[in-house]
Design a protein that fits this description.
Layout (H helix, E strand, L loop, with lengths): L2 E4 L5 H10 L5 E6 L2 H11 L4 E6 L5 H11 L4 E4 L14 H29 L2 E6 L12 H20 L5 E6 L4 E2 L2 H5 L5 H6 L1 E2 H14 L3 E2 L7 H8 L2 H11 L4
Parallel strand pairs: 1-2, 1-4, 2-3, 4-5, 5-6, 6-9, 7-8
Length: 251
């Protein structure tokens, strides 16, 4: 059976993906910054699979290095760690803004590059990069977050094409609003549309793992969310910006 590494496993989608993967692998490496939550997960899944906890800050180069060194080789990589900040870019703390880039872009790229090369050499492997439905349009109010997820989607699509035929697949997960702690962490306010269209993290995790194991290039959970990429192609940018700004209640 394969081994797996899940980043951002202490809560939300990462936590639920870890639960889904547990009976499918013989070694599960989980990482994040919330030590107690990771230990709880280790205790929960310990009877099902060998769980290894690595506490790492992926906003730092040393944190990513320690994760790679501690995790060793894996067959499945889930690049889930990420966060965002709500508000006007000019009003946000510069360190916080650049931290989003460090985690959502830099760490994901480093891990993807490292493990894709390892997997290609062995002739098999699966990578799941967690992007977002926000990857399909600019997001006033979540400017850096949306831009980072657009990067994740573009990178995943390109890697998928480059690795075709190698035995390694790359899947981009593009969820819409999910019932996690992201909104409270980012400071984002939800409108009615986001609330009624949101999905539980457990449902998103099941769809994500299924798509990854099948080697799909990308997956968008939730029927309502399927239309967003279409709108992004046909609506003028000016109108997209107005819609997103209104939905995020940015004044």
């Amino acid at each position: 059976m394969p081994s797996a590494l899940v980043t951002g496993a202490s809560s939300g989608i990462g936590l639920e993906i870890s639960r889904v993967l547990a009976p499918m692998v013989d070694r599960l490496v989980v990482t994040g910054r919330q030590v107690e939550a990771l230990r709880d997960l280790e205790q929960e899944l310990g009877d099902i699979v060998e769980v290894e906890v690595i506490v790492a800050d992926l906003s730092t180069e040393s944190g990513v290095d320690s994760l790679i060194g501690g995790a060793g080789d894996v067959d499945l990589l889930v690049n889930n760690a990420g966060y965002g900040l709500y508000g006007r870019l000019v009003d946000q703390d510069p360190d916080g803004v650049l931290g989003i880039v460090d985690v959502n872009v830099r760490a994901l790229t480093r891990l993807g590059h490292h493990y894709a090369a390892k997997m290609k050499a062995s002739g098999e492997g699966r990578i799941l990069n967690v992007a977002s439905i926000a990857a399909f349009q600019p997001g006033p109010g979540l400017a850096v977050y949306c831009a980072s997820k657009a990067y994740v989607l573009s990178l995943s699509r390109a890697m998928s094409a480059e690795l075709r035929g190698s035995g390694v697949t790359v899947t981009a997960l593009c969820p819409g609003y999910v019932e996690t702690g992201f909104q409270s962490t980012s400071g984002m306010r939800l409108t009615g549309v986001e609330i009624w269209s949101s999905l539980p993290a457990s449902s998103v995790a099941k769809k994500a793992v299924r798509a990854m194991m099948r080697g799909r290039r990308e997956v968008i959970p939730g029927v309502v969310n399927w239309f967003i990429p279409v709108f992004a192609r046909i609506l003028p940018i000016r109108l997209q910006l107005m819609i997103v700004k209104a939905s995020l209640m940015l004044r």
